[in-house]
Amino acid sequence: MAGSANTVKKVSLELGGNAPCIVFDDADIDVAVKGSLAAKFRNSGQTCVCANRILVQEGIYEKFASAFVKAVQSLQVGNGLEESTSQGPLINEAAVQKVEKFVGDATSKGANIMLGGKRHSLGMSFYEPTVVGNVSNDMLLFSEEVFGPVAPLIPFKTEEEAIHLANDTNAGLAAYMFTKNIARSWRVSEALEYGLVGVNEGLISTEVAPFGGVKQSGLGREGSKYGMDDYLEIKY
């Protein structure tokens, strides 16, 4: 943006995210686990729309955590060219060190490792699919994008608290929620400060819908008819 300012050039920016994934008490557990797994561990957590924080309402927290850990345990780590593999390596050594730093920060502040939490036995830049429990908003896992296979679980009490926690970031690309309550899905979707919201669905990107964020996640949209707007000027 700074480089384009001198000559007043228009920019389209697709930047980072810090996607919340909210699981309400009234969610279908199986749908929530499947959707959260897809949103978090796609490409080993290395996409800008990956769920970065999984917010779980207290009434369903233990049940969800148990089912989610079991699902993460079944993820196969290995060579991406093999059919059975669903989790590959991180992009480089620096990425692994970043993940280690975030996990270390969380455990030093009271979070608990429910699964994984260390480099994979395959070595190189492989890291174990990890679930961290009782994460709070003073931890790096909450405030910054981990960009790796680490799922932080954050308990919350009320819908209002969930919205506040979800919006407590300078990013605003993707958000996800799981609920069977239609009124709540509309209410919360409208309250979330994000460019994309998935309801009971963990994979929401499609070329026929406008993709992009608000706040420091960028400007403009790509995909759909609106994706053309950044390349056009209106003449009267």
UniProtKB/TrEMBL annotation:
EC class (word): oxidoreductase
GO MF, any single term: succinate-semialdehyde dehydrogenase (NAD+) activity
GO biological process per UniProt: gamma-aminobutyric acid catabolic process
Keyword Oxidoreductase: yes
EC number, as in UniProt: 1.2.1.24
Residue span(s) of domain Aldehyde dehydrogenase: 4-235
Pfam families assigned: Aldedh (PF00171)
Designated name of the protein: Succinate-semialdehyde dehydrogenase, mitochondrial
